[in-house]
Amino acid sequence: MPEICALQLLPRPQTITVSEGLFRIPQRGAITIAPAEKHDVLPAARRLQQVISQLLQLSLPLSVGSRPAIQPAASFIYSPLLPAQGYEIAAGADGIAITYSTPEGAYYAVATLKQILEQCGRELPFLLIRDQPDFAARGLMLDISRNKIPKLETLLKIVDLMADLKLNQLQLYIEGSPFAYESFPQVWELETPVTGDEILRLNAYCQERFIELVPNQNSFGHMEHWLTRPEFNHLAEIPDGFMLPENMYDHDLYPDGLFMQPGTFRTEHPGVLELLGKMYDDLLPYFTSAQFNVGCDETYELGLGRSKALADSGGKGRLYLSFLLEIHKLVTARGKKMQFWGDIILQHPELIPLLPKDIIAMEWGYSAEHPFAADTLKFREAQIPFYVCPGTSSWNSLTGRTDNMLANLRSAAVHGKANGAIGYLITDWGDFGHWQHLPVSYAGYVYGAALAWGAENNLEADTAGYLNRSIFRDRSSGIGQLLLDLGNYYRLESGALRPNDSEMSMLLRSRLDNMGIAGKLSPEQLDQLEAYILGIEGRLEELSLACEDAELVMLELENSIRFVKHAVQLARIKLKLAGAPDTLDPAVIRRQISDLELLLHEYRTLWIRRNRPGGLTQSVSRLLSLKTDYEALLLSLTEHTKN
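Above: the chain's sequence. Below: its structure in token form.
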């Protein structure tokens, strides 16, 4: 059998049979479409035309109908017998036949053909592929609310990647002011938000690629940016803020407790629904999607402030549900189907059957051990449609948490499919400054997309290979595994349970006099961690990227590694401060200040390459606080030396 038959496809199709023989795409061939189907299949045909031009430097015309004078290189054939979004590809002596029942199915066939052409060039092996997705909705959610708001061109490139991965839903998570609400210019006038006009352009770009742009705006908790403003503060459950309950934060990071700004609405105030209605009316007209994710997760202080009497008499769960139903009325009145995060209602499972049947629960969880099996069963038994929503594990990590990411995405797919999930949404958050660079998240996008298309068939999907071939075009075939390895440095930390976090990231966010995290790390662990990171850094020079943003990607990787190296040295300084402060050399602190200044310079420069300037000041604020701590320590050490 020809060596060319060793195809590596992601997602791996349901069935693929390769046989002896090769079909060479003719230089003067054509892409043919049946006359009756020309409009529906035209996006897929144009995409195939573009792919062949880019990869093979061949210009194949589109031809409607078949005639003896035309030599078909590829033909699109409609068949109502195939499932929605499904397709078949048959390559043989007479050319390539793409069979489909829906336009998106034809488009997904082209995505598969693109990978085959990338690997085989003009000579394809004879093959037969039959394929269809496990989850009808396969999405990606980007957090644009934690400081980092991508430029429109960055979003468009992510959409192109999604199309290649057969993802069909995009959500931009909104809390605060990443969107330019026209009724509330005072909220975002000092920021650089996404505008309605940009949403229109992004929405059209998504539609051309069979991707649904679903509006996403938190509507209950996570409203700090609004409720801390004087004109909206009266709508807060606890206007002055509150201390988070002790079981909800890391005591090593916050030894004195964690104060939270007001973030949850006072449910019984009529002004809340009026505000939400205006926000919805500003946001929703720019989207063609019939769905709307209203959030409603992590309503921490609900029932602890102004609604305490209601919660004490009727129960906090019923208080939550009653307001969720009011939001549902707002959403349905605007012609949308409501999605909502399912974490709070899962704390009151007896109330799940009371949810409207036209609602969609978004079951999220980001640890390898998250109970997707038990949680999704609760929604299934109540006949509530639901998605599973795992994550990339990139946030609060600097460079990712690879093993956790793989296990979390895998568990969501397996248990979601088993219990009848109608969708699979990969979430990519940006808590505490959104310090991770975009390439850190790509592995999660790729592996999650593979599982969303076919769970069992892609458990061992070659994520590294796809990163090498299709995203970074790495001639050394090294960056995929490097990224996966870079995301596993966290396994060399103390081993303490740090949900959705890594200790190196936590060190950079903590005060210099806080020894809680560093105290769990031994000098030997830090030596091992540093050696591991230096080993990965040494592999950077072996890479040979040919993607459009190759230079930027390399700089982002170097900066990511500098973050981790700086955190390791910070831990060593803290250990010395805790044990033998008199032996701390001021020169060490000077070098640390210099390194942090270089890190910040690199980070600021890289930020504006992919993202808008708004949010950058907030993103670096914790790092600037650390620099101030260094400078105070250096002054103290210098004065001590003089004395």
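The chain has a mean pLDDT of 96.
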